[in-house]
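*** Residues and shapes ***
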Amino acid sequence: MSLVKSHRDTYRRVVLRRLRRDRGAVAGCIIVLSIVMCAIFAPHITPYDPLKHDYSKLLFPPSLAHPLGADQYGRDLLTRIVFGCRYAIIIGGFVVAVQLLIGVTLGLIAGYYGGIMESMIMRMTDVMLSIPSIVLAVSIAGLLGGGIQNVIIAVAAVGWRGYTRLVWSEVLSIKRATSVEAARAIGCGDLRIIVRHILPHTLGSVIAYSSFSIAIAILWAAALSFLGLGAQPPTPEWGAMLADGRDFMSDAWWIATFPGVAIMITVLGFNFFGDALRDALDPKMGKRV
C-alpha cells in the first residue's frame, strides 16, 4: 500500500513540475485564477452597480472614471464584464458537471460490458455526433426558451458525446489489464471494478478534456446569448453584452469590443491550461521531465 502511495506522490510531483515548466500552463493558470477571483470578489472590484442605469453617461467613452466606457444605458462596462465572470464560471462549471455525469457513465458502461449494451450506447452517440453541434444547441435552446438554466441544458446536451467516446476508448484498453483481471478473479463486483480499477485510469484524459470543455461551454453559451437564445437583458453575460453592442459599433465600439475580448482571453486561458495539462498527465511525455 505504501508503495502505491509513493508512486502516486511521485506522479503528482512529476505532473506539477511539468506544469511549472510550461509557459502556456502558467499563463493559462493566471488567466483562469484571475477569472475565478473576479467572479468571487466582483462586488468589491468596482464601485458601480452592473444593472443600474445612469442616463447622464449614455455611451460614455473609456475614461479614468470608466476605464472601459459605459453602454447605451450608462452602465459601467468594466463592472458588467467583471460580473460576467460569474456567469462564465457558473455556466462552464455546471455544463461540464452534467457532461461528465452523462458522458463518463455511458462510456464506462459501454466499454466495460460490451456486447449489445456497447452497440446501443455507441450507435446512439454516433447518431448524436452526426447532428451538427450548432444545429443541436440552437434547436434545444429554442425549444426551452431563454435563460441561464436553459443555456446550461442546451450546451450540456451537445458536449456529453465527446466524453462518451473518450472514456469508451480508454476503458477498452484498460479492462484487459492485469489488475482488472486480478480483481475479477478474487470476486470483486462489476461496480467495484469499474469505480476502483477502471475509472481512476481514465481521470487523466477526462480532466484534461474537461479544461477544453469549459472553454467550449463558455463560447457556446455566449453564442446562444448573442442569438437571443441564452441570457436575457439586463443580465451582465458576455454574449448578451455583445448583442447589445452590435448596433453601436460605429458610435460606441467599446460596448461590443470589450466583452468579445473577455470571451477570447477566457477561452484562451482554459485552452492553454488544458493543453499543458494534457501533456503533463501523459506518461509518454516522460522524456520532458
The chain has a mean pLDDT of 88. The domain at 18-288 is CATH 1.10.3720.10 (MetI-like fold).
